[in-house]
DNA sequence: GTCTATATACAGATAGAC
DNA sequence: GTCTATCTGTATATAGAC
């Protein structure tokens, strides 16, 4: 049996297999709906051996969530710093989010739905990360309103509405659906500009097609 | 002790207390995160007595979900039948949904997040109801596109995006927030029209302020 | 690093007295 | 309609041999 010896680059370590199969079960049946025996079976281990690869079930969940949110936050911050045009920045943040939530669906479902399974210091850490990411969205919307490009009475509410809309992609996206992934990203960023009533200086609607954006998967953490 | 004898109209029966406190616990800790003993304690009963008021935990969850979705579906269908203008119909459906999800937050959270706790015939029933409700949203969006009022490449995706956006309200709304409930409803319906690029015959943007809508709580099941 | 065996607590649900 | 007492299964986690 291989353990951690060098292998081909796409070989999965036991540790990675534990995390990946846990994501699948948590996404399907929920954190509390998945037992230690389920996790062990899914990873092809006994429960005792499973505990060699994780401290406990709670910490495994926290790691899954932090691994999902932290790269999103880093990318969004980088986008906001890089692009002075608020419309470009917001559209790019939306597209990156949609791209990530369609590409890594199950981890995003777990992250989005199992926060309430945590408590104490674990909950605090995940919430802080989540709030920080939401804060980037709010700053992006607020910047567009300050610049007179977006028009919305409640920037915080608008940011949350768009974030929740884009997060929902993880619950239904399929590569075999009517929209390809890059089309889906454009659809959501264009819709977000519409939601925010983005306008050009002449007052006409500013659309996604008017913008030059980096590829949605350009900002990989 | 009162049981089912007549009392003042706002007296809560034991049965209603069981359902209400179950909604609170399920919304807070999740279905699998809430034990029978938690439910009994929350309702001020022993576990045995709790079983006098419900068949089992699964059926209690199904009842909570059906009680939340069925009125939404009925209202949306009635709105769609009543209003020939697709912009009015869609905006009204959005406002009713937001109003319900802000007014009855906890039941909507449970309904939105615990579908995966069900299986078999229970899952089938709830999914059928949910799909039927989503279908009304899709028909509303499609009607607007056919009429040349909305402009979106993927009506099904747009409907789901708007539905998920509006559903998110249940996760954060507070009556003490920056927007009052009726303002929130208008904010979301206006945003939805923007997302769908609603246009007047002259090509200018069609906004919520251009429409005459019934009150968001007009369609009560 | 993997196993068998097990500790301890709690899950959902019921029996049967009053 | 409410209770005490309890059944049976499963939960998370660990001990200690190999």
CATH superfamily of the largest domain in chain A: Tetracycline Repressor, domain 2
Structural shape of chain A = elongated
State the share of residues found in helices of chain A, binned by percent: 55-70%
Specify the number of helices of chain A: 9
- How many domains in all of chain A? 2
Quaternary: homodimer
Biggest pleated sheet of chain A: none
| Total E-strand runs of chain A | 0
CATH-scheme architecture of the largest domain in chain A: Orthogonal Bundle
Order of helices and strands of chain A: HHHHHHHHH
Q: What is the largest interface, and how many residues per chain?
A: A-B, 37 and 37 residues
Q: Please state the CA-atom Rg of chain A, rounded to the nearest Å.
A: 20 Å
Let me know the average pLDDT of chain A: 95
Proportion of residues in β-strands of chain A:
under 5%
| Uncertain ranges of chain A | 1-8
The structural class of chain A is: mainly alpha
Query: What's the CATH C level of the largest domain in chain A?
Result: Mainly Alpha
Instruction: Give the termini separation of chain A.
Output: 32 Å
CATH topology of the largest domain in chain A: Tetracycline Repressor, domain 2
